Amino acid sequence: MIEPASSRSTGCPAYSQTLPREPRSAVVARRLVRAALTLWGLESLIDDATLIVTELIGHAIEHGRLASIRVVVSRLSEKAVRVGVVDRSKAVPTLREGSDGHHPRGVGLALVDALADRWGTEPYRWGKQVWAELREGETS
């Protein structure tokens, strides 16, 4: 975990919400991300973070096993956040290289990779969380 740059409070440590594993949940997830980043004063990260959460939800919809997923938005430091989606599949996502343009599947993680400062997977006994971190003032 990244330590805060100062001893000032960074706000609530995290927001999360359990949602149905279906495409319309992306709208609710984007709203949650937007609200958290606005409360934390990190508006400059909203566009990239909402696009990332949309892609992570799409991945969870395709690969998850149960009817629900969980969206988590956490503040790592004064200028850094982590956006994650938890599902009940143990399948670890991989970044596909060299898309020929005719198969749009698999480009979501390439987009996450391009927008995030870093991203990865946290395995759980029963599933996983795919997450991406963004930092204000840095470019990926």
State the strand order across the main sheet: 1-2-3-5-4
The fraction of residues in strands falls at 25-35%
Shape, please? globular
Give the CATH topology. Answer: Heat Shock Protein 90
The helix/strand class is alpha+beta
CATH class: Alpha Beta
What is the percent of helical residues?
A: 25-40%
Let me know the largest β-sheet: 5 strands, antiparallel
CATH superfamily: Histidine kinase-like ATPase, C-terminal domain
| Low-confidence sequence ranges | 1-9
Quickly give the CATH architecture. 2-Layer Sandwich
Individual helix count:
3
One letter per element, helices H and strands E, the order comes to EHHEEHEE
Radius of gyration: 15 Å
Distance between the termini: 19 Å
Q: What's the structural domain tally?
A: 1
